[in-house]
From TrEMBL:
It comes from the Bacteria. Residues 12-268 form the Nucleotidyl transferase domain. Pfam families: NTP_transferase. It is an enzyme of class 2 (transferase). It catalyses: alpha-D-glucose 1-phosphate + UTP + H(+) = UDP-alpha-D-glucose + diphosphate. It comes from Limimaricola variabilis. This is UTP--glucose-1-phosphate uridylyltransferase. The keyword Nucleotidyltransferase applies. Its EC number is 2.7.7.9. GO terms for molecular function: UTP:glucose-1-phosphate uridylyltransferase activity. InterPro entries: GalU_uridylyltTrfase_bac/arc, NTP_transferase_dom, Nucleotide-diphossugar_trans.
Amino acid sequence: MKQRVTKAVFPVAGLGTRFLPATKSVPKEIMTLVDQPLIQYAIDEARAAGIEEFIFVTARGKSALEDYFDHSPELEARLAEDGKDKLLEVLKSTYMPSGAIAYIRQHQALGLGHAVWCARNLIGDEPFAVILPDDVIAAEKPCLQQMVEAHRETGGCMVAAMEVPNERTSSYGVLDVEPGSGNAMKVRGMVEKPKPADAPSNLAVIGRYILSPEVMKHLDSGEKGAGGEIQLTDAIAKEIEGPRGVYGYRFAGERYDCGSKAGFLQATVAFGLAREELRDEFSQYLQEMMAFRSAAQ
Ligand code: UTP
């Protein structure tokens, strides 16, 4: 079995109901963080990690997402003609080599596990990454790259993990890990969306995974889990007893939940302030805004 991770699955077939009415016509993954759609952050992270094949699991109403990856000769010609070299560079940095992107349809939103399973024939018998584009991670070394490097040592399955407040465990897959130090923690149990009282810890799984092809086989059963959905967590949990096991990877970086409104706004502030050309004006505005608010209270 090939060990190098060169394929990534991007499940983008969810309904995005938390962003209605915008998501009536705009796929959540095309929504803009500063000046890039969420999907571009995910693609850049995957490329940095050595991914060469990008598999999108899409659904009805997501054509804007597919169009985003088309080349745009007219725009290119206009920018060249106008001497806008910097913008031309930005445009070209979004181009993907021909044949590097594949689209698969998930005909019904039956859950994340089902979405990943839809890509099984393109994955074959090799380890693969899964990236959820609505988890945006700001990190010096991109999160998936950190995980690919750690996975070279561990093999098996690996999920990105971070601590969350106890009362938030019911929004995540939660890990029970063996005690010990190090960033790659051996998992001995995982449960999807437990109530705080039932959660084995406050170590939550977030949207980056490196999975063995056996996980696809576990998904074949179509077994439903929490919320009546086919859960990816349940299929990964079946690998805990497998020969290579499952690891929770404590990544270095800041994760923003851009699938929620509050998370998206926080990411907008953080990524806006991180941009040199915006920082001064934007931080001055934020300070004035805060001063105004506290004076009004
Ligand atoms: P979410 O739980 O955020 O669901 O899915 P959602 O539909 O995108 O958004 P809300 O909750 O209705 O606002 C997490 C990830 O799994 C994908 C989503 O596209 C998202 O990237 N997903 C989820 C699928 O591709 N298919 C599914 O059936 C479910």
